[in-house]
Amino acid sequence: MESSNQFFDIITWVITIAVLAAILLPQIFKILREYERAVVFRLGKFHKTKGPGLIMLIPFIDKIERVDLRVLTINVDRQEVITKDNVTVHVDAITFFRVIDAEAATIQVEKYIHATSMLAQTTLRSIVGQVELDELLAERDKVNKNIQEIIDRQTDPWGIKVVSVEVRDVVLPENMKRAMARQAETERDRRAKVINAEGEFQAAERLVEAATMMREAPMALQLRFLQTMSDISEENATFAFMPLPMEMLEVFKNMSGVDVPPQISDDSNDTDNES
C-alpha cells in the first residue's frame, strides 16, 4: 500500500514538473532566426536588443518584440494626382525599406510598416504634384530618387532605411493620350520635312558642284550626254532616240539670241564675237 502511495506521489511530482516546464521553458528560452532581433522590455522598460540564436529571458518579467531585419515591400496604392501643369494622372509605386535599428523602430513609432506606408503615399502625391507631366514620364528615375530621399530622411529617426522607391505605373486620361499621340505624329512629320529639305539642299549643292566642273571641262557634258543615252536605251523599246550633236543646239541658241550656257567653251565665244 505504501509503495502504491509513493508511486502516485512520484507520478504527481513528475506531472507537476512537466507542466511547469511546459509553461516556463517557452518563457525562458527563445530562438530567433538570423534575420530577427528581439527588443527586450523588463518590467515595461527597455532592457536590450538580443539575437539571433538562443536567448534567455526572465519569465513573466521580460517581454519581447520581434523585429524583422529583411527588406520589406510596401505597395503604395494608386493615387489621383494633379501635376504641376494641371494634368490629372493616376500613379502607384513600390517602396523597399529595411529596419536597421530594431530599438528605434519599436520604441519611436507604432506599427512602423503602416507609418512608412502612409508616409510613402503622402510623399508620392507631394512630389508628383511638383513636376510636369513630361518630366514625370521622361525622368522617372529622378522622381524616384527625390521620393526615396524624402522618405528616407523622415524615417531615419525611426531606425528605418528606405532602399528605393519605384513609380510603377502612370495612367493618363484618354483625351491626354490622344493629344500626346497627335503631338508625336506632328513631331515625326516635322522631322521628315526637315530631313527632306536637308536632302534637297545637299542635292542642290552637288548639282552646283557638277555644273562648275562641267563649265571647267565642257567634255564632261558630252560624256554625261552619252551616259544618258546608254541609260535610256533598252532592248524591245517602243520609242526611237535620235542623238543630236551639242554643236547644233548651240547654233540654234545663238540664232534665237539666247546667251550661251556655261558649258560652252571660251573658244566658241571668241568665234561668235569675230563673226
From TrEMBL:
Organism: Fodinibius salipaludis
PANTHER family: AT06885P-RELATED, BAND 7 PROTEIN-RELATED
Family membership: Belongs to the band 7/mec-2 family.
Listed InterPro entries: Band-7_stomatin-like (IPR043202), Band_7 (IPR001107), Band_7/SPFH_dom_sf (IPR036013), Stomatin_HflK_fam (IPR001972)
Gene Ontology terms: cellular component: plasma membrane; side of membrane
Transmembrane segments: 6-25
Keyword line: Membrane, Transmembrane, Transmembrane helix
Residues in Band domain copies: 27-184
Protein name: Band 7 domain-containing protein
Membrane topology category: Single-pass membrane protein
Compartments, record wording: Membrane
